[in-house]
Each structure stands twice: as structure tokens, then as C-alpha cells.
Amino acid sequence: MIGSSSKSAAAAVMRATSQAATACRNAFTINSGYESTIQNLKLHANTRVMCQGTGKQGTAQMQEAIKFGTKFVGSVSARKAGTTHLDQPVVGSVREAAEVLKPDATVVYVPLNGAADAFMEAIEAEIPLIVSVTEGIPFTDMARVKAALLSQSKSRLVGPNSPGIVSPLAGCKIGIMPNRIYSPGNIGVVSRSGTLSYEAVQQLTLLGMGQTLCVGVGGDPINGTNFIDALKIFLDDDKTEGIVMIGEIGGTAEEEAAEFLKQYNFSRENPKPVVSFIAGLTAPPDRRMGHAGAIVSSSGKGNATDKINALRDAGVVMAQALPHVGVTLQQVSREMIKAGLIEKQ
Question: Is 107 in contact with 174 (CB distance < 8 Å)?
């Protein structure tokens, strides 16, 4: 059943590609301002990562990141300045850390009531990449942070309420993702849900389809990085040959991503195969389903059906269920190679 549905879906991709190609659309560009910080999502083996906070949970997660290969350079804690944390120096402020530790990225492990201020410190210190796993930050606090982000062109935020960002190819992990499920390869993964992304990544790894970069955009209504930001990285990266996008009910991020893919992926030669799954198909209106942003309004806005239809119309192949994501991408890739739409690597 999976194979036959994938073949029909691949045929739909071919039709969408043919139609879009006649439009002769130009390649996307990355503009100045905050959008230019999209490039900060690219992780490398030498990406220098610091930690804001030295508590028990943050320490445990940082230890796992170090095991993964992450280059940890130190921490920030006003109370513990002058000591060491995981054998690296602790400084008293983010501004001092920028000068002394010279980080490329920071992961924020501070209590909920201090998270927004921690983001603001990192923005003011021009830390290139800020990662936050914190859930439940007040809307007004995140509105203040988002305004600060949009007013500058140095710092990029992933999250909040995100599992983080990881590059198995680079051996760099910033966040709380489980080490064991990732493997280096050629698939880019972007998701609003951490746990759903873990399931998809595990499938890919078991099928021998490793990952280039996995981005958790987070499940809150206001975030620093969205689907399109991650998709721009994937489409511009020669090492990324296929894409998995995991969405859920609430908001319009998936519909916007669908339009972007229709215009900039399926309109070009050798489009990259994209498989998606949308969680919450049977969710009732006006009821939050996990994340703060996962809610269908009483008017029906943000429902799964509209998202699925938009993605299908764009040429994205929809997995019938979450456990089918990996095999669906595998089958669609084979069909697109057979049809001559993409080259066999």
C-alpha cells in the first residue's frame, strides 16, 4: 500500500514540476537584515558552542552534546563566574563570553522567567546562533524578543520550545535531541515537534538515509526560525538531496512553506524530493493539542486538511502516517530518479 501510494504521489510531483517549470521562476534570494542570519543555521565541526546556565538539566544535556562531538567552549553564570563547568571556563555575562569564549552559538538553559532576558543578552552581544528549548515563555516576552531580532542582522534564534538543531555530518548538536538516532547522510529534516522529528529521523537512519541538518523550529506561536528559513538552507545545500518536513495544526507556517516550495523547489531542474507529515488531522477546534501553537481556531483556520492540501498542491508528497515517512521518501526518490527528475548520486 505504501509503495503504490508513493508512486502516485511521485507522479503528482512530476506533474507539479512540469507545470512549475513553465513559469520560469527565479531562484530565491536571501535578503539583508534578520533574514541574512539564516546562514547562521549552518553548523560545522568547529562551531564553538557555549551554554547560558549551569544547572543540573542543562549540564546533563551539554554532556550529551559533547559526546556527540560538539565543541563546547564554556558557560555563562553570574553566580559562578571564575569557576569551571564541564572543564571549561564560566564567565559572568554574555558580553564577556563573546569577548573571551568567542562562541558561534549559545544554548539557553535558564528558568522560564529569565529566558527572554537571556535571549536579549545574546542578541545584544551579537552571538550568531541562539538555541532555546524553553516552553511556555509569555507571549509578550517573545514579542519583545522577536522585535529585537528583526531590528538586527547578527543573531539568529532557533526556538523557543525547540529540541534544538543538529548536524550529524558536522558532529555538532545544540539542544536536547537523543544522540543515538542520528547518522550522517543527505537528508534535511525540519519539524515543529521534537518527538515527531525523533520518530522520523529514527526511520531514516534505519533505512540508511542519514541526515545533513535537522532543525526544530519549535511549537510556540512566536519563534525565531520557521520552515522557510530551514528550507532555504536545504535547497541551497548540495549535500542535502531530500527533505522531510513535519508539521502540525495551528497557524499558517505549513501553507507558507508549501507556496515557497512550489515556487522555488519544483520550478527548477533537479528538484529535491520533499515528504511531509501533518499531525492533528482529527483535532477538535479551539483545543490546544500539546504545543501552544497547535490549535485549530473555531473558524477552522490552522486545520490539518488545509495544510495537507496546500502541500500536495505544491508537489510535496504526504506520508499517510508518521511511521511511513522514511519509506515514502525512499520510494519517491527512486521514482523521481527513474523519471529523470533528479540525478542518482
Answer: yes
Structural domains in the chain (count):
2
Catalytic pick among 44, 85, 291, 324: 291
Verify whether residue 291 is a known catalytic residue.
yes
pTM more than 0.85: yes
d(CA 269, CA 277): 25
Contacts of 234 by beta carbon, 8 Å cutoff, 6+ apart: 188, 190, 212, 213, 240, 243, 272
206 and 328, same structural domain? yes
Split the chain (345 residues) into runs of 10 and give each run's mean pLDDT.
Answer: 54 53 58 96 99 97 99 98 98 98 98 96 99 95 98 98 98 99 99 97 98 97 97 98 96 96 93 94 57 48 89 97 97 90 71
- How is 188-229 classified by DSSP, letter by letter? EEEES-HHHHHHHHHHHHHTT--EEEEEE--SSSS-S--HHH
Establish if 70 belongs to a structural domain: yes
Residues in the chain: 345
